[in-house]
Automatic annotation (TrEMBL):
Pfam families: CHGN. It comes from Oncorhynchus mykiss (Rainbow trout). It is a single-pass type II membrane protein. GO terms for cellular component: Golgi cisterna membrane. It comes from the Eukaryota. This is Hexosyltransferase.
Length: 595
């Protein structure tokens, strides 16, 4: 036994010493250390597992919300700092949060359904177009076979209809049939020889043209007998004809002899050309160039044949629920407004029944008369679909129409911009509906403008009622193709295009500005004469306050409103005519004796 002194307690401790050899002490120390570490590690693992299990049990969300929370962001994310929506969404849990997620999923599903429906519609349209093109080409083949006595039942030798496959004998035959048809168009047109015509009115005149000018009988909107081709398609058409002619002239001829010249022709050698279009056959071009000698010329005749009719669209248009909002800007002229409402009652209320009237009145003078007319109409025929807006400012047609269009709050309605001196029929209202489509088409009708009735009928006592004056003849009026004020378009298109230029005051200019906006857009502008839209004659006054350009436009319109060219001539030379008639009376009373 060995006694050891313990400095901690100041005692001597008896210790039994056992001899373990040289390594006994270090081995026991290592094994004891390992056991202590392992016990501490196990204890730490147990503590961590307990804490993790406790956290999962107390902090994890319900299973349904947890699944959704991994699929979608929480409500309120992305809202500005401090936003009410963000704070509310962050605080949502349980049923309230689940409703938000379900609404978001429903919205996503609706968007996908809409996209799929749009794709299906586009595919159906493409299939229909492909089928129509195939049927049209088959019709060309059938007509060619009937013309040549074929009788093959519309089938090509290859067994397919024209246009199918594009290879093999069937495709070759189809191409040959098409070429044969185009050459038949050349034979029908007046190119190689003339055709008997019933009268001078059946004659289709030529237009002549040079490199810079076109000389035309149909002068169109510009009223110029000669002008540069302002339309791009017209310029491209004539340029293509010229380029084709030059290419033909500069192509070497097969078997050309020694006398054949190698002159290279250019556009500077072109002298003039003539062209005309027969609408059921094609367009012919005759172009004249300088020849090799001073008195020699080269003439080329080109022909652009027209193909057969093609069915492009066959659709059903339902206008039963298409309401028209007629907007009329007005300042004073209460008597004219009463006449307007007389026609409005019969056409819009009794016959059509799908009309809303918006009157935008400028100023206070005669406003009571206008309001009284509307209220009387409402009371007498039970008509409630009207709106009267008053603006205490200077009259501006564009401003009034713009205010009236934007005041409508009932969805995307069809707008008809009208004036108080316009007469229209129920057929025109349907034409307005059929020639407009939101995002696709706007309608700019050309109305028939009345001449001065006192000049047409010659006697104030025998002027017929307005309804009997609405006759479309050259002595009663003219197509007002320089006016763009009466127009039909959907409200969405009007808003998207930017509306009127409200800075334009007084008469004219605002309609042309809007018309050009539509021409510069991708919308189809339908411009055609309308047999049910009339401008009633009224004396036009051009204010001295108008700018020079507007005043000139106003005076031109005033001159054209009075009478036809022939009637004005008769009025201008009336004294000479009366003198001639006075000289003729004695001769009729005392006829000269025959010698």
């Amino acid at each position: 036994m060995v006694r050891l002194y313990s400095p901690l307690e100041g005692k001597v401790c008896p210790v039994v010493c056992v001899s373990l050899g040289p390594l006994g002490d270090s081995g026991m120390l290592r094994r004891g250390l390992l056991a202590w570490v392992s016990r501490v590690g196990v204890l730490l693992v147990l503590v961590c597992c307990s804490l993790s299990l406790l956290y999962v049990m107390t902090c994890s969300p319900h299973s349904e919300d947890n699944l959704v929370s991994h699929a979608l962001p929480r409500p309120g994310m992305g809202v500005g700092v401090g936003g009410a929506a963000g704070g509310t969404g962050a605080a949502q849990s349980g049923p309230t949060g689940r409703n938000g997620y379900q609404a978001m999923l429903a919205e996503r599903e609706e968007q996908h359904k809409f996209h799929i429906t749009s794709l299906k519609k586009q595919i159906a349209q493409l299939k229909e177009a492909l089928q129509e093109r195939s049927e049209q080409l088959k019709g060309v083949q059938d007509s060619m076979e009937r013309g040549t006595g074929g009788g093959r039942g519309g089938q090509s030798p290859g067994g397919g209809i024209l246009g199918e496959g594009g290879q093999g004998p069937g495709a070759d035959r189809s191409h040959a049939d098409l070429q044969e048809f185009l050459h038949s168009q050349l034979g029908r047109a007046e190119v190689h020889q003339g055709t008997r015509l019933p009268s001078e009115y059946a004659m289709v005149p030529f237009e002549s043209f040079t490199l810079q000018r076109v000389y035309q009988l149909e002068m169109g909107l510009t009223r110029h007998p000669e002008e540069k081709p302002v339309r791009k398609d017209r310029r491209d058409e004539l340029s293509e004809a010229l380029e084709t002619a030059l290419q033909s002239l500069n192509t070497p001829r097969n078997g050309a002899g020694k006398g054949y010249t190698t002159k290279v022709y250019s556009a500077s050698d072109f002298i003039e050309g003539i062209t005309r279009t027969e609408k059921d056959k094609g367009t012919v071009y005759e172009l004249t160039f300088k020849g090799d000698q001073s008195r020699e010329f080269r003439k080329l005749v080109l022909f652009r044949p027209f193909g057969p009719l093609m069915k492009v669209k066959n659709e059903r248009v339902d206008t039963a629920n298409v309401r028209i909002n007629i907007i009329v800007p007005l300042s004073q002229r209460a008597d004219k407004f009463r006449h307007f409402m007389h026609n409005f009652r019969e056409v819009c209320v009794r016959q059509d029944g799908r009309i809303h009237l918006t009157v935008v009145y400028f100023g206070k003078d005669q406003i009571n008369e206008v309001r009284s007319t509307l209220e009387n109409t409402s009371r007498e025929i039970n008509f409630k679909n009207f709106t009267l807006l008053q603006l205490n400012e200077e009259f501006s047609r564009g401003r009034g129409l713009d205010v009236g269009a934007r005041a409508w709050k009932g969805g995307n309605v069809l707008l008809f911009f009208c004036d108080v001196d316009i007469y229209f029929t129920a057929d025109f209202l349907n034409t307005c509906r059929l020639n407009t489509q939101p995002g696709k088409k706007v309608f700019y009708p050309v109305l028939f403008s009345q001449y001065n009735p006192t000049l047409i009928y010659g006697n104030h006592d025998y002027i017929p009622p307005v309804e009997q004056q609405l006759v479309i003849k050259k002595d009663t009026g003219f197509w007002r193709d320089f006016g763009f004020g009466m127009t039909c378009q959907y409200r969405s298109d009007f808003i998207n295009i930017g509306g009127f230029d409200v800075d334009i005051k007084g008469w004219g200019g605002e309609d042309v500005h809007l018309y050009r906006k539509y021409l510069h857009s991708n919308l189809l502008v339908v411009r055609s004469p309308s047999r049910g839209l009339f401008h009633l004659w009224h004396e036009k006054r051009c204010a001295d306050e108008l700018p020079p350009e507007q005043y000139r436009m106003c005076m031109q319109s005033k001159a054209m409103n009075e009478a036809s060219h022939g009637q004005l001539g008769m009025l201008f030379f009336r004294h000479e005519i009366e003198a001639h008639l006075h000289k003729q009376k004695p001769q009729r009373l005392n006829p000269a004796k025959k010698t």
